[in-house]
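Q: Here's a chain of 200 amino acids. Please give me its 3D structure as tokens.
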Amino acid sequence: MSSYDSKMDMALEAKRSGDYEKAIRIYNELADNTQDFTQLQEIYYSTGKVYYLCDDYSNSLQSYYKTLFFNALQTPSMLNDYICIFYDKALPGVDEMSMMRFKMFIQNYCRHIGHAIVDAVLIDKEPAVIYQYVLSVAGRENRRTQAFKQRHNVSDNSAPNQAWMDQYEDMCFNKGTDCINEMMKQIIEKVNPTLLRYMS
């Protein structure tokens, strides 16, 4: 196992145990010591999740932005996929399979980014709703999950009804989509500004 893989495993174990400060410290050390775009994508994606679990929604969003940025540097064709899907444009060299892969990839980001935005607003109003998402990300036995539960006085029996949970997930996805559009515009300006003409 490489040193990189070993440290990523250490960070993941720290995250699973609820030691988020340690996980972030390891991720930051890894990011400072690599120029590999694939590794940087993985590092910042993982960091974004950990910052979210720390209720640090601003740094979570910044980490997800960096993930998208390094992904665009690694695979510039994803920018064309984005234009085709979000602006309904036909660009040469973009096929259905490529767009499908990108759509699956970006939907995951819409969800995570949307939660970082919406939960920053709802954390004091609807902690029981957010607790259900924290459970899905970190697990019931995680130290920080238990801390969240105590801090916001949430019980395992206080789950909101399914209709409200569905509305909450839709809200997160829509907010995440809007944010990704802003992020992708900034990334295109830096990586391939010639594509800006298709974004009107």
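Q: Can you summarize the key feature?
A: The chain has one domain: 3-198.
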